[in-house]
Design brief:
226 residues; alpha+beta; Alpha-Beta Plaits; 6 helices; 5 strands; RNA binding; ABT1/ESF2_RRM; Nucleotide-bd_a/b_plait_sf
Length: 226
């Protein structure tokens, strides 16, 4: 399937072959019967929301674990915030992507509801020594929630994030412009102050008009005495 706007391809794990709507070869128009069957299949689906993804668990692993309970359609895990990911990669040795939350689509909403009730707050388990054997699932069934709603939600969040980013960049450019303007103003004022100090220094060593008159008067009296 095509990746919807705003969805990270790395967070997607595609549909089960028996549940997929894509086929190899040219795409043929759906007959009314096939369209009705597809719509009915979509109406039967159910989505489970996982509010916390154990560290290091990837979409394919979530899909594998959930497939033990029923036919799984699509799986999507949301990666952590880019800023947080940058700091984690900078200050830790873990470089792989981390996921914070996820959605799992089951072909049967009854199964989805049962899986959420069965696994929520329960240990993930697995073989002894497994990485997540002591970790705990945190999930819930989303009534009347369909996959198309998720893609719309993700697209809206991506658009909102892009808008916030543009606003932050605009503010940053404005602050930078203001800073450079203040730096230039300070430089001009410093030059003016330096020129003013030079003039004051010259005036200290340059005789004033009154001083020159006194000197001339004194010289005249000295000549008369001689």
């Amino acid at each position: 399937d095509d990746v919807p706007d705003g969805m990270d391809p790395a967070g997607l794990a595609g549909s089960d072959p028996a549940f997929s709507t894509t086929h190899a070869g040219p795409v043929k128009p759906l007959t009314p019967e096939a369209l009705a069957a597809f719509s009915a299949a979509q109406a039967r689906t159910g989505v489970v929301y996982i509010s916390r993804i154990p560290p290091g668990m990837r979409p394919a692993k979530v899909r594998h674990l959930m497939s033990a309970y029923g036919t799984v359609g699509r799986v999507y895990l949301q990666q952590e915030d880019p800023r947080r990911a940058y700091l984690r990669r900078k200050h830790t040795s873990t470089k792989k992507a981390h996921y914070t939350e996820g959605w799992v689509e089951f072909a049967d909403k009854t199964v989805a509801r049962r899986v959420a009730a069965l696994l929520n707050a329960q240990p993930i388990g697995g073989k002894k020594g497994s990485r997540w054997v002591d970790d705990v699932w945190t999930m819930k069934y989303l009534p009347r929630f369909k996959w198309s709603m998720l893609t719309e939600q993700v697209a809206q969040e991506a658009a909102a994030h892009a808008a916030r980013l543009r606003a932050e960049l605009a503010q940053s450019r404005s602050e930078q412009h203001s800073y450079l303007k203040n730096v230039e103003l300070a430089r001009v004022l410093e030059k003016r102050r330096a020129r003013g100090e030079d003039k004051n220094a010259d005036s200290e060593f340059k005789p004033s008009d009154e001083s020159r008159r006194r000197d001339r008067s004194s010289n005249g009296r000295n000549v008369e005495k001689e």
